Amino acid sequence: MNISQIRDRKNHAKIVIESLNVKGMMSNHKLAGAVGDANFYEFRRQLEYKSQKFGSEIIYAPMFYPSTKTCSSCGHIQLMPLSTRVFDCLSCRISLDRDQNAAKNLEKLGR
Ligand SMILES: [Zn+2]
Q: Looking at residues 25-48, what average pLDDT do you find?
């Protein structure tokens, strides 16, 4: 799950999270174990509870928002198999960690 946290001028946090297709991920036998262990529902429940308590805003990225496949620098979209851990943009040639790239895209979505 990729998450990006943004603070505005008044220091109120915005947290951007992806709505994952957990049902679909559970049907993939390679992902099912990790997804089951992560307990996304409990994580989300606690995040919502704590955000409300501390006055933070949660922004939900659409379920199929391509945060991983989109270059955070130029916007180019390309295939990113799960085994590919580094985003090497075929357009602008930037190279960065897969999750860092996705987090930057979520941060942009929250602004
Ligand atoms: Zn690029």
A: 81
- H-type helices in the chain, by residue range? 22-26, 29-38, 40-54, 98-110
Cα(109) to ligand 1 centroid in Å equals 17
* Residue 11 backbone class (left: φ over 0; alpha: ψ -120 to 50; beta: rest): left
- Indicate whether this model's pTM tops 0.90: no
Residue 48 CA to residue 109 CA, distance in Å, equals 19
Q: Tell me, in angstroms, the distance from the centre of ligand 1 to residue 42's CA.
A: 35
Specify the long-range contacts of residues 95-100, CB closer than 8 Å, at least 24 apart: 96/72, 98/68, 99/2
CA of 36 to the centre of ligand 1 (A): 33
**H or E element that contains 95:** strand 95-97
Rounded to the nearest whole angstrom, what is the distance from the C-alpha of residue 88 to the centroid of ligand 1? 8
Please give the tally of structural domains in the chain: 1
pLDDT on residue 8: 57
